[in-house]
Amino acid sequence: EAQHLWALAQVLLFLIDRAGSDDSAERQSSESPGRGERTIGSQMRRGIILDALKLLDAIACAHPLMAAPLIGLEAMSLAMREALLVTPDARTRRQACILLWGMCSVDP
């Protein structure tokens, strides 16, 4: 079970990173026409990031021993950068804070 949850967590982190990359691509596409067709809408991106953060939180709550290894991943660092610093969506920032708070408050 832990291996499957670990794989799921990595997929969720990938989705957060990818949704953030699409956001960057969309911002660049406003400068260069024609690139925007390959990106998803900003509301869909926010939803993907928010849902992925909620699922990561559920994994961390259900398996607290996974919290420390997850925090140590470079992909988690990039995901938190995207969710806390880059996104303008307050709900996404709030969910990222809840996830980090929950992961950091786990007793080793």
Structure in words:
The relative contact order is 0.17. The two termini are 20 Å apart. With 108 residues, the protein is mostly helical. It has helices at 2-29, 42-62, 67-72, 74-86, 90-104. Helix 1 packs antiparallel against helix 2, helix 2 packs parallel to helix 5 and helix 4 (74-86) crosses helix 5 (90-104).
Inertia-based shape: globular
Using the CA coordinates, give the radius of gyration. Answer: 15 Å
SS element count, helices: 5
How do the helices and strands follow one another from N- to C-terminus?
Answer: HHHHH
Structural class: mainly alpha
User: Uncertain runs with pLDDT below 50, 5 residues or more?
Assistant: none
N- to C-terminal distance: 20 Å
Largest sheet: none
Helix content: over 70%
Summed up:
With 108 residues, this protein is mostly helical.
